[in-house]
Request: fold
Amino acid sequence: MSIDPRVVKDELIQIYPKKLRQKRSEQIVVTEHREDSSVPEIKANVRSSPGIITQRGCTYAGCKGVVIGPSRDILSLVHGPIGCSFYAWLTRRNQTRPESPEAQNFINYCLSTDMQDENIVFGGEKKLKVAVREAFQLFHPKAIAIFSTCPVGLIGDDVHAVAREMKAELGINVFGFSCEGYRGVSQSAGHHIANNGLFKHIIGLNETPHDEKFKVNLLGEYNIGGDGFVLENILTRCGIKQISTFSGNSTYDTMANSHTADLNLVMCHRSINYVAEMMEKRFGIPWMKVNFIGADSSAKSLRKIAEYFDDAELTARVEEVIAEEMAIVEATRATVKARCQGKTAMLFVGGSRAHHYQMLFTEIGMKTIAAGYEFGHRDDYEGRKVLPGLKVDADSRNIEEIEVVPDPERYRPRRTPEQLAKIEGLTEMEFRDYIGMMPEMDEDTLVIDDLSHHETERLLEIYRPDIFCAGIKEKYAVQKMGIPCKQLHSYDYGGPYAGFKGAINFFNDIDRMVNMKIWSYVNPPWQAKPEQRAEVAAD
Amino acid sequence: MLLRHTTDEVLERTALTVNPAKTCQPIGAMYAALGLHNCLPHSHGSQGCCSYHRSTLTRHYKEPVMAATSSFTEGTSVFGGQANLLQAIQTIFGVYNPDVIAVHTTCLSETIGDDLVQIIAKAVAEGKVPAGKHVIHCNTPSYVGSHVTGFSSMTKALVTYFADPSAEKSKKINLIPGWVEPSDMRELKCLAHKLGIEIVMYPDTSDVLDAPQTGKHEFYPRGGTTVDQIKSSGGSIATLGLGLSSSSAAVEALQTKCGVAGETLELPIGLQATDRFIDKLRTLAGVTVPDAVTDERGRLLDMIADMHQYVHGRRVALFGDPDQLVSLTEFLTLLDMKPVYIVTGTPTPQFENRIKTALGGNVPEAKIKAGAQADMYLMHQWIKQETVDLLIGNTYGKYIARDENIPFVRHGFPILDRVGHSYFPTVGYDGAMRLLEKILGVLMDRQDRDAPEERFELTM
Reply:
């Protein structure tokens, strides 16, 4: 089957009004491999057009739901009408494992000021203060995070002033986030706001020293379905100390202590790169992009870490762990590959998953024919090399860019520029870089930013891929078309999918989904010949 | 423990809600609008609202839930949402071609003060609404009422926009089903059909949120009440609303606008509420109740009589929406169970009176709370003080059920972790049998699990 993706592109957008058609045409790109290794430019991180049926959510979802929510002992208090807190209540599957049965764990609680009309009219600060006091009385947390929802910004409640006042009164850390839903074009703005808050209010507050030789933080790993547990297990077996994770299975104290690490590993570039950047500037901790989705990618990432620490013993242990894990992966991978080889996949999700998960499909012989992010930026598609040329538009300008200078006492470059350059020369990787999705995609595949529902249905009709990966809102519409849909936010309540064991889980799940029997029974036996004479006629 | 910080010491709270027994208005409006044929619900606010509502409804039904959003940005919040809504209306008719766009507001657009009537009139004036197509709206500020209020408001909007006072007079009865499942709506239609009564029912989410797998995604599924059917409801002989909190507003609006006499009953969940429903329906239509329906009733009665010993005297905690809670309380009381804790986050005038009526003087120790700080946290604290034998409520109850080792029946919204609610009704006599079967199932499974070996019963 030969389908010209350029024709498909026109087909997807022809129904739109002219202005929208023009805009969407810049957000849909056919990949090319150019000699100078550049990739085509894509328009991303721009507003979704009203009425379009987008996958995207809001700034609050990115801040509270994605980045801060997974931490178990920061008490999250949502200032607003009840819905925002309700919908973010346990719906993202961030697993957490308290140190002991007595340790604080607020992840199963949903707190709200449940604003009423009188709070909108007369202001909600007073109610917020009382709510913070009540929350403190009930839970005695080390820290309370206050999240603003849409009306809060409009009526002018100053959550930061309330936070400062409560911090002084209660003697615990209290901080606010101006993450009103309308602040940005997607969840992405909320990630940035959350990153700023982590940096301003938590990181660097806990000076507990660590003797371990190899100390890292894992950034942008939210422990959905237990991914973080798998990675922690791998790193520990390699002899690498994980000081903190941002923010899966994390605690306030570990995040506050994260500046004692010697390397930041960035999993989800989109949601956490700001923290990585700021920590390097203030504390001198280099960061590198890693990818633990896919067995080969996991092995590669581990080797990069070993290169960085440049220690023979560590390198040997890393190789041992890779060898052990790969032996187990190989058995499943070969079986599944035999059953999935040549099948096709599409991935439209998130801000890094639509890239990372392509590796898993590749490992079982499946081809990604179209992909895109829900809330990625150009650098997530084209690589960070485009950053210097990016213009800050009106929708991004209102998010604070924190001016970071080296900490007078604690700035300690972990490696000299020469050392870093040497490591870069040894491996394929670069520090503080991310090459993006597009360079790793095949020629003539489609890359579509902020895919709309209309485009989803047309894509599926034209290509009929063997599997489509998206989120809960897309899942059942796709499956009604007889095409299995894998949720890559919630993993369809399965997982973990990270690391080596995660890859095995993923291979098995995809094998099950693309080979399940039910899809071939959609048509009833009588459909082919609907009119039939009774074989036994009554006299 | 999942809820390890919940203790039995109840502190007076005035500002903080913990683990709410409600959510916000717009999701109810979205659900109601899905019960209109060829309708695309539209959320006038930030993208997150629409995304959250679609996600929650999708998790509850495991079905596609289509809806659009005005995608507010910071600029919109400053300048108002008119431009976004006008653009949305144009794009939606052009791309998704519905018969109706049903707009509901959000806390954001309400706080800004967007005037939906004016914006819709402008859209019409500018030719953005094709001939024969409609844009309707209801106001659903999230800081008033709850999801139930939103459902009620959108149902009322169907009357205000479509019910036609000059519609041809008919012998039909309007049925306003209240916030129940597609399975329940199907069952209500089925009961009316068995009684030989022609009804106009809206909203109707059956064949929308329980659509069959056919290999094709019907963007507008077969089900949903048509605009013409709602228009015709202005000429019906009477209106019967079900669920005081979710249906009264529409029933009253229909009476005021079209002069159709209306009455609202409690939801027909359980024996007595179903009795009143069937009796009212047959009286309004002047028909005799067929044996088939009386037999359904008899089978329910028989089941209760046979299994009474397993439910009698059991203490029950229930949380959820007022209409469901009132009828459930009445049914549980009939079974000689003891509904001791009854909590809804939905501010509900007369809630305590409605529940007390349902209790009929039984269970004087019952604790009842609605509205502010009536949350699952408080109910859990009551359970910590004195436990119960059964918990009934939405999926979030599973955290309490596991911590406190209490048998749990899922009922209400949302149910995120089990299937069945969209396919098997709990209204009507058959629905009550299903409910009783579920209650018996969890109680008897528990008895089987915990019984000493020598008291493990073969026959129960």
About this structure: Residues 312-340 of chain A form the longest helix (29 residues).
